[in-house]
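Design a sequence for this backbone.
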């Protein structure tokens, strides 16, 4: 696997200089349509494919030469890219290093530990550039814990000693292997139990007003202690899943409660601590209620000034409904100066018989394409590593990860999700701009990003049972391509 991916890397198109003309500074850079007028040579496109019922896993499957495009017909399938129209700036793609991921990694032989880090964070792997972690425990921890003694409102006993055993060493390895450039942020699952007036952190509850300041100070302490360990923090989300009373660590905030905590406590506390450069992400929950949360917080100028943007998960389809990316587009229209970040997603209901279930990977590809096309700037998976039970998880909420470890055998198991994510993270680099991309049929979905070196990566996905031939039209140039059934492709060109 490593050799295969390395060969792909060596064949990536050499950098070229991009000339751009960006018009009007009056509109926010992240959201406006830019006239790029890209000087693409468009000589050749390289095609990288991952496909069901084949051996193709991030495999180079062909090269095609561009030619003058003909008028496409209605009975043909086409993908259209207009590199002269660009949108949001790409922040990165990554996953979460939880207590579970770190403890499983620590149980592996050294050569497998090295392989896991290389698979995610290096040029030979899929080049993750984002990292999420938790503020004290989550369900993917061995047990509930905090960084203070129970009842310590003044945080005099604050210590991250627990994290120094497994989590921080793994995070340091990941950051070092990525070249020291890994955008890292953290999320709490619950305040300490006494701050909610409860006996434990499980099953919801709400932060009591008398502890608002103490809890805001807790974020500052966390950032200070992690940065002392050489782990720079880009920012935080206020609360993981603030409208879900989970069987694990959880805490409920109404939109108004989250707004008021941000504007009266967390934002000002960051300012006073000299942390105005730390980014604060609101919501951090599903796409179903996301517009209401954005409306309440972003319509309040005193709260909005502290919010970098809004985070979201993909679990709204627990009701049997559709994925609600359309709500993201509404937020971009309503609040064009705010960013959208995908903060968590995983395939629930772990079953070791289904490590290679192809639809798990397709769920990633479909969500990533549709999220990016609605203005999302970054995308963060959940646990980067779990064991052969889908854990450990102290409330038995067992899930899939892109890579699993069978610790009893000292083996790593790569799932389709790893390769689907890699079609984005390996070829799109932070700072890239999404460029206009559409398809003529719903049988294909697609998105494109132009990297700062001028190279372009277009991702095309086919969830149907049939191979599909398509015209790939970039500006006034085209190639003819084919994507297998249940496959994802990255087309690389300059």
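Sequence:
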């Amino acid at each position: 696997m490593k050799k295969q991916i390395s060969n792909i890397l060596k064949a990536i198109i050499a950098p070229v200089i991009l000339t751009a003309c960006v018009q009007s500074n009056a509109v926010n850079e992240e959201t406006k349509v830019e006239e790029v007028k890209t000087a693409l040579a468009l000589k050749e496109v390289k095609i990288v494919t991952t496909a069901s019922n084949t051996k193709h896993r991030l495999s180079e499957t062909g090269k095609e030469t561009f030619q003058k495009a003909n008028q496409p017909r209605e009975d043909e399938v086409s993908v259209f890219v207009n590199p002269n129209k660009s949108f949001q700036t790409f922040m990165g793609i990554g996953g979460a290093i939880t207590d579970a991921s770190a403890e499983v990694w620590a149980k592996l032989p050294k050569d497998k530990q090295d392989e896991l880090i290389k698979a995610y964070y290096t040029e030979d792997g899929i080049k993750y550039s984002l990292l999420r972690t938790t503020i004290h425990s989550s369900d993917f921890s061995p047990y509930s814990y905090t960084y203070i003694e129970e009842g310590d409102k003044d945080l005099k006993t604050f210590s991250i000693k627990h994290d120094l055993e497994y989590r921080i060493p793994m995070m340091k390895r990941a950051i070092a292997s990525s070249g020291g450039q890994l955008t890292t942020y953290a999320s709490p699952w619950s305040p300490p139990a006494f701050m909610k007036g409860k006996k434990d952190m499980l099953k919801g509850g709400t932060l009591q007003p008398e502890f608002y300041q103490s809890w805001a100070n807790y974020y500052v302490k966390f950032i200070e202690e992690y940065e002392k360990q050489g782990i720079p923090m880009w920012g935080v989300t206020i609360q993981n899943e603030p409208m879900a009373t989970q069987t694990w660590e959880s805490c409920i905030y109404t939109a108004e409660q989250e707004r008021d905590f941000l504007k009266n406590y967390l934002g000002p506390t960051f300012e006073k601590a000299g942390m105005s450069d730390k980014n604060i992400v609101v919501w951090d929950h599903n796409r179903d209620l996301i517009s209401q949360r954005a409306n309440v917080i972003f319509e309040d100028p005193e709260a909005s000034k502290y919010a970098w943007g809004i985070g979201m998960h993909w679990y709204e389809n627990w009701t049997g409904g559709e994925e609600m990316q359309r709500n993201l587009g509404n937020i971009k229209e309503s609040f064009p100066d705010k960013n959208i970040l995908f903060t968590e997603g995983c395939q629930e209901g772990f079953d070791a018989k289904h490590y290679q279930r192809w639809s798990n990977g397709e769920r990633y590809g479909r969500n990533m394409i549709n999220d990016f096309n609605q203005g999302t700037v970054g995308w963060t998976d959940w646990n980067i590593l779990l064991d052969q039970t889908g854990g450990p998880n102290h409330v038995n909420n067992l899930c899939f990860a892109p890579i699993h470890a069978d610790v009893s055998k000292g083996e790593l198991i790569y799932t389709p999700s790893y390769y689907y994510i890699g079609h984005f993270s390996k070829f799109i680099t932070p700072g890239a701009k999404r460029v206009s991309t559409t398809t003529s049929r719903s049988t294909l979905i697609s998105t494109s990003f132009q990297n700062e070196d001028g190279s372009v990566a277009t991702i095309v996905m086919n969830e149907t049972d049939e191979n599909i031939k398509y015209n790939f039209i970039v500006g006034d140039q085209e190639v003819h391509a084919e994507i297998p059934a249940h496959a994802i492709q990255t087309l690389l060109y300059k």
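The two ends are 27 Å apart (CA to CA).
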